[in-house]
Amino acid sequence: MLEELEAIQTEALAEIAHIADSPSLEQFRVDFLGKKGRLTAASTRMRDLPKEEKPLVGKKLNEARQAITAAIDQKGADFAAAADSEAAAGVDVTLPGVPLPAGNAHPLTQSLDRIVQALRHMGFALASGPEIETEWHCFDALNTPKDHPARNEKDTYFFEDGTLLRAHTSTVQIRVMESTPSIPLRIIAPGSAFRRDEIDATHLNQFTQIEGLYVDRRVTLADLKGTLEFLFRHIFGENTQVRFRPHFFPFTEPSFEIDIKLQIAGKEDKWIEIAGCGMVDPAVFEAVSRTRGDDLFDPDKVTGYAFGMGVERLAMIMWGIPDIRLLIENDARFLRQFG
User: Fold this and answer.
1) In which domain, by residue range, is 55 found?
2) CA 25 → CA 28, 30, 87, 310, distances in Å?
3) Looking at the DSSP assignment, which residues form a beta bridge with residue 138?
4) Same structural domain for residues 13 and 152?
5) 222: which of 8, 27, 144, 307 lies 20 to 30 Å off by Cα?
């Protein structure tokens, strides 16, 4: 058996020296090392050897396999090097290279990163959730009545099984409250939202929203106001004027819309609405408590605030973009301005 293995190794190493191309090399590998190869066939006969011969034969078998494998690898490397040399033949390496244009982040991504950075600096943690949601997470848990316009099929994308494409990322707030083991809870939820809006200069049917939630024992409206004033002055400049107008949202009470004053050279200053916010409605805490089966979010023990804003609108203000559709058209001429 030892002589047979030695003969197979010698023959293989001699034959491999005359192989001229990669397909022939692969066929050689199969012939000697494949499942039905000569070396494999020889190894199957080891079970018939006397016990005292098996160690020597096994050692020789491994040596032969390693030697043949190494020769195949070296031959394959030689073929690859030859192919590279042939491909590079005639190339003048002294010619200057072709410059590649530098890439840059999309203006929407840059705007979102700036917002997230500011909120993370204030202690908010990132959270995420599914884009296909239940009606309970999207509306019922957020104290939205059955006859609310947002629950109409003309405004929201429903599926036949009753699920829907989330109309806001407030659904993430509900899911986090359902699963968190403790408070305080301070999260932000950036992501896509979907509404059946006609696409025009100021509306998209899929847009990016970022919402925030802070819940603790003694959260007040002053905390909300200070947080958002800091955020918008970080984004738009220290001298940005921010105002809060009373409004109504089903899931917050009291509720506010937030405006900032735009100062555009050559034009009259104007207020523009950019976000909504408010103190979390006790009905939301009660819905979460019923689902959890405990009193962690008992509205008699905790308070909280929530806010939400469309990132596209903020990007348009930040960069002076006149039409929201420019953000989804992928026109390189437009996007190159933001490098």
Assistant:
1) 2-88
2) 5, 9, 21, 61
3) none
4) no
5) 144
% the chain with pLDDT above 90: 55
Compare 55 and 245 and report the one with higher pLDDT: 245
CB 276 within 8 A of CB 255: yes
Residue 22: phi and psi, rounded to 5, are: -65, -45
Inter-residue contact 153 to 162 (CB < 8 Å):
no
Select the more confidently predicted residue: 290 or 16.
290
Average pLDDT over the chain reads: 89
| 221: exposed, middle or buried (Cβ count in 10 Å: 0-12, 13-18, 19+) | middle
d(CA 270, CA 264): 9
Q: Are strands 125-126 and 185-194 parallel, antiparallel or unpaired?
A: parallel
Which token pair is 257? Answer: 């819309």
Q: Are residues 83 and 126 in the same domain?
A: no
The CATH number of the domain holding residue 121 is: 3.30.930.10
Taking the model in full, what pTM does it have? 0.69
Residues 270-313 have pLDDT tens digits of: 899 999 999 999 999 999 999 999 999 999 999 999 999 999 99
- DSSP lists the bridge partners of residue 132 as 165
- Quick check: 307 and 124 in contact, CB under 8 A? no
Could you please report the per-residue DSSP string of 187-245?
Answer: EEEEEEEE--PPPSSS--SEEEEEEEEEEESS--HHHHHHHHHHHHHHHH-TT--EEEE
CB atoms within 10 A of CB 25: 17
Per-residue pLDDT tens for 162-213? 999 999 999 999 999 999 999 999 999 999 999 998 999 988 999 999 999 9
Q: Do 129 and 225 belong to one domain?
A: yes
Number of domains within the chain: 2
